[in-house]
Amino acid sequence: MTDPEKLRGRALDALTAARARTAVLTDCVDDRDLTAQHSPLMSPLVWDLAHIGNQEEQWLWRAVGGRDALRPEIDSVYDAFEHPRALRPTLPLLSPAEARAYALDVRGRVLDILEGVELEGRRLTDAAFAFGMIAQHEQQHDETMLITHQLRKGPAALSAPKPPAAPDLSGLPAEVRVPGGPFTMGTSAEPWALDNERPAHARFVPAFFIDTVPVTNGAYMRFIDDGGYTDERWWAPEGWEQVRRHSLTAPLFWRREGGQWLRRRFGVTEPVPANEPVLHVSWYEADAYARWAGRRLPSEAEWEKAARHDPVAGRSLRYPWGDADPTEDHANLGQRHLRPAPAGAYPAGASPLGVRQLIGDVWEWTSSDFLPYPGFVAFPYREYSEVFFGSAHKVLRGGSFAVDPVACRGTFRNWDLPVRRQIFSGFRTARDAEDV
Ligand code: AVJ
Ligand code: FE
Fold first, then answer.
1. Is 276 part of any domain?
2. How far apart are alpha carbons 183 and 20 in whole angstroms?
3. Which residue intervals define the domain DinB-like in the entry (predicted)?
């Protein structure tokens, strides 16, 4: 898509949608809630709000527009690398009213730039990418703010309709065999793909089996009931260390009462639904469950091959269902619901081989470290991806119910520390196929 007017419209729509979601997340609580620290793991919501405006000022007003800085003195306060989240409440933060006014002022100026910028040739793709990157950035912080809402104590501030009911799963195989051979991993064509998704390259992946649906709460409860959290055999050494140090017995937000598992979700307590994908587990918990089940986590390449490889067309698709942008029939994305849909939902979103719910619902842990693809070039700044490459972070794939479609593709890569549990993380398991 290189029609400048289409690019302009797409950028405008993406920015507008992101700001509407930011408003939902920040207008539903009072100023005390916006400036409070609900967890040392997270920033006060008002930090995210002004950080969103500050990144937009830096990348669209200054870099694309070539204009002078509006508020250079606040850059350091909103630099994620300078201050750990736990210490952000001690910074001289903009007040909620100032943060809103700042983000609004930047947005007005940026829309003027978008209207006038010459979207031509090389300049077109660079400028269009910057607008797409900033829309994705805001949506990513909206997901971060939703995590803060989940950690927040007190009555519910957000609500949403329930996702679709559980489909009839009889006849659905438990696992799907993905044939061995090369496939195209990553992308060079997707205009808003971030640097770490690039470039497209051939990967050989031997045949393997992967779960048709994500691991459910019901399955995970069997691991718990079987003494999963008290048996060192299933755990990586650092995972076992975590279990003992924090006396872990279940996923985050679960609590046992009267022989039943309950969970607090966005201010409401409910019984843990057995048919929903498990949520708020660390990489160590996912890894331990898989070992207990006699299986393993899929590698990142296996996950992407299961999601994108079309054996009939002989190429990689943008999404499991094809090349069309996600609709409400394909996947649970965009905070339309405040929970994953039951396992097996969204049959229209299945991959060519029949794997379901790869996109949306829960982020899926993979066994892989976050590493650059061959030919990786940092763009537009090293701090987005490059400084995180290495063995400290594990890759998550597929997006959750909290991820907007603009920041979700078959190639999209997320990463986090293996101890993280407050994120919207789940998993599915895999195993080698004997034959290749
Ligand atoms: C890609 C989700 C790991 O939130 O740390 C936001 C995205 N980068 N601002 C994060 C991001 C800069 C990033 N993750
Ligand atoms: Fe950020």
1. no
2. 38
3. 14-145
Total domains, the chain: 2
**Cβ(421)–Cβ(252) below 8 Å:** yes
Helix (H, G, I), strand (E, B) or coil at 31: helix
Token readout for 81 is: 């690398």
Pair 3, 120: CB distance under 8 Å: no
The number of residues in the chain equals 436
Give the CATH number for residue 84: 1.20.120.450
Instruction: Report whether 11 belongs to an annotated binding site.
Output: no
For ligand 1, the distance from its centroid to the CA atom of residue 197, given in whole angstroms, is 14
Q: Are residues 320 and 357 in the same domain?
A: yes
- For residue 363, give its domain range: 176-215+293-432
Neighbours of 207 (CB within 10 A): 14
280 in Cβ contact with 315 (< 8 Å): no
Whether this model's ipTM surpasses 0.95 comes out as yes
Rg (CA), the chain: 22
pLDDT in tens, 54-111: 999 999 999 999 999 999 999 999 999 999 999 999 999 999 999 999 999 999 999 9
CA–CA distance, 313 with 329 (Å, rounded to integer): 23
Q: What are phi and psi of 201, to 5 degrees?
A: -155, 155
Q: Determine if ligand 1 sits within 6 Å of the CB of residue 43.
A: no
Ligand 1 pocket test target in 52, 140, 148, 413 with most atoms within 8 Å of CB: 140
What pLDDT, in 10s, does the model give residues 315-337?
999 999 999 999 999 999 999 99
The count of other CB atoms within 10 Å of the CB of residue 96 is 22
